[in-house]
């Protein structure tokens, strides 16, 4: 694509009449620039892309997009906001790929990963080729790619959508984080279905208040558009049991389908029955009542399943096929995942890293725990400090044996993080063990028949970040080895 044609997609039109080189790629990392690239200067928290524009030109950049004039021997196009411009240009350069896919976006504090995986399975079982973007990985068909962020920046995102189009993907399912919405990473992404799971405390280190956090989540629904396309309708799938849904309903002009348990909803679970091996409920729907038996446990699992049913239903998949699919779901890696090495007590690994998710998981554990409940939990460094005492309080309230340890301390002192947690449980009985491996070993060494151990916070993660180093660490492997060494 020629530079003039590409720049023409920016509005208001950028007044550029200089050279018109062929643009072969768009990059915002100077190390990835090759001959013919358009280099976009992005101001980050730690580095400023404008400082690397010269290096990009040396690597072959044919043009540079910047927020100020730069003394370079290639065309420099100046715009007010390169992040916003990057989303527009990426969408144009890759041929507006999201418009060629059926797009499902999921936002909320908890449940995004599990819900996205369930939705993806429903579409796959319905005979579609699927794409998945989220916390764990990006998936195109059966190909899996590593990710850095839950929701990639706009350039990577549109490039990924293009790959999906080339690979003839029908439906793309993705997690949409609050950070991505605020940063504009999903600008230009044409969602057909937007799903809301829930809103509880998280990321207040960035959003500062729950009101700002809620506003960030609401952007997904306000960005669904304001037109009624009867051939390709758009839907918001909202949790009727979460108060934030009322605001999101006002923010969108899309059709709304609600789901819930406690409050009236279009899709509602009633007569719920749980055991240690699964959950059954009556699904009340616009198409009548259906019996649903899932292999997942916990009230939170029912919400995830209801949200998934809603997203599939508004996408035109038959209810009977949806139910058959969700009933075959065995679980998602690191989400209430059982570690079974033949022991006579239960070990569960879960990603729960917010007060609400930890409480939900521990309440579920209590429903089948016969004796003691151990909870090994930590809090991440360089993240929301205000939730640390809350996490500790919940662990002490719902577990008989709370064990505080490290999560991913990052640049913070692990001991200081645990001290923040301990502020919430003065006078309570708990154990603090900084080394996460030792904490897990301690729980497993002291567990007896009928006990349950919950190892919370890291779930599917296979690493631990301490200082500026990343170490191999998988709660599931550490737990299994500790069991085998008993």
Automatic annotation (TrEMBL):
Its cofactor is Mg(2+). GO terms for biological process: cell division; cell wall organization; peptidoglycan biosynthetic process; regulation of cell shape. It is found in: Cytoplasm. Meso-2,6-diaminopimelate binds at residues 383, 407-410, 457, 461. The modification N6-carboxylysine is found at residue 217. InterPro entries: Mur-like_cat_sf, Mur_ligase_C, Mur_ligase_C_dom_sf, Mur_ligase_cen, Mur_ligase_N, MurE/MurF_N, UDP-N-AcMur-Glu-dNH2Pim_ligase. Coiled coil: none annotated. Its EC number is 6.3.2.13. One of its GO terms (cellular component) is cytoplasm. A motif (Meso-diaminopimelate recognition motif) lies at residues 407-410. UDP-N-acetyl-alpha-D-muramoyl-L-alanyl-D-glutamate binds at residues 149-151, 177, 185. Residues 334-459 form the Mur ligase C-terminal domain. It comes from the Bacteria. Keywords: ATP-binding, Cell cycle, Cell division, Cell shape, Cell wall biogenesis/degradation, Cytoplasm, Ligase, Magnesium, Nucleotide-binding, Peptidoglycan synthesis. Signal peptide: none annotated. ATP binds at residues 108-114. Pathway: Cell wall biogenesis; peptidoglycan biosynthesis. It is an enzyme of class 6 (ligase). Its main location: cytoplasm. Carboxylation is probably crucial for Mg(2+) binding and, consequently, for the gamma-phosphate positioning of ATP. This is UDP-N-acetylmuramoyl-L-alanyl-D-glutamate--2,6-diaminopimelate ligase. It comes from Mesobacillus subterraneus. The lineage of its organism: Bacteria, Bacillati, Bacillota, Bacilli, Bacillales.
């Amino acid at each position: 694509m020629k530079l003039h044609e590409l720049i023409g997609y920016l509005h208001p039109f950028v007044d550029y009449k200089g050279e018109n080189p062929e643009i072969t790629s768009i990059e915002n990392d100077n190390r990835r620039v090759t001959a013919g690239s358009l280099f976009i200067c992005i101001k980050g928290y730690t580095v400023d892309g404008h400082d690397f524009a010269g290096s990009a030109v040396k690597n072959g950049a044919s043009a540079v997009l910047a927020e100020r004039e730069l003394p370079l021997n290639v065309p420099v196009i100046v715009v007010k906001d390169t992040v916003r411009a990057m989303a527009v240009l990426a969408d144009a350069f890759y041929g507006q790929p999201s418009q060629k896919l059926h797009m499902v976006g999921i936002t909320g504090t908890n449940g995004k990963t599990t819900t996205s995986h369930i939705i993806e399975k429903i579409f796959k079982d319905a005979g579609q080729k699927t794409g998945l973007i989220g916390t764990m990985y990006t998936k195109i068909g059966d190909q899996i790619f590593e990710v850095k962020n839950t929701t990639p920046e706009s350039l990577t995102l549109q490039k990924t959508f293009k790959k999906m189009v080339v690979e003839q993907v029908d439906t793309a399912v993705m997690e949409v984080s609050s950070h991505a919405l605020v940063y504009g990473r999903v600008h230009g992404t044409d969602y057909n279905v937007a799903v809301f799971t829930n809103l509880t405390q998280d990321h207040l280190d960035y959003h500062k208040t729950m009101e700002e956090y809620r506003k960030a989540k609401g952007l997904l629904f306000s960005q669904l558009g304001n037109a009624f396309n009867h051939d390709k309708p758009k839907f918001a799938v909202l949790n009727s049991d979460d108060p934030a849904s009322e605001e999101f309903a006002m923010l969108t002009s899309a059709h709304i389908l609600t789901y819930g348990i406690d409050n009236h909803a279009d899709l509602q679970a009633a007569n719920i029955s749980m055991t240690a091996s699964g959950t059954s409920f009556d699904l009340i729907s616009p198409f009548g009542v259906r019996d649903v038996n899932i292999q997942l446990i916990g009230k939170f699992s029912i919400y995830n399943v209801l949200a998934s049913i809603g997203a599939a239903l508004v996408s035109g998949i038959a209810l009977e096929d949806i139910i058959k699919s969700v009933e075959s779901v065995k679980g998602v890696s690191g989400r209430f995942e059982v570690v079974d090495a033949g022991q006579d007590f239960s070990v569960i690994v879960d990603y729960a890293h917010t007060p609400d998710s930890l409480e939900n998981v521990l309440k579920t554990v209590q429903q089948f725990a016969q004796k003691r409940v151990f909870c090994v939990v930590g809090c991440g460094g360089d993240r929301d400090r205000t939730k640390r005492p809350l996490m500790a309080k919940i662990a002490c309230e719902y577990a008989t044996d709370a064990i505080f340890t490290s999560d991913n301390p990052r640049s913070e002192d692990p001991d200081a993080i645990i001290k923040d947690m301990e502020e919430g449980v003065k006078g309570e009985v708990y154990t603090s063990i900084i080394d996460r491996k030792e904490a897990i070993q301690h729980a497993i060494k002291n567990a007896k028949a009928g006990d349950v151990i919950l190892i919370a916070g890291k779930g599917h993660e296979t690493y631990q970040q301490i200082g500026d180093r990343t170490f191999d660490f998988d709660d599931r492997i550490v737990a299994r080895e500790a069991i085998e060494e008993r």
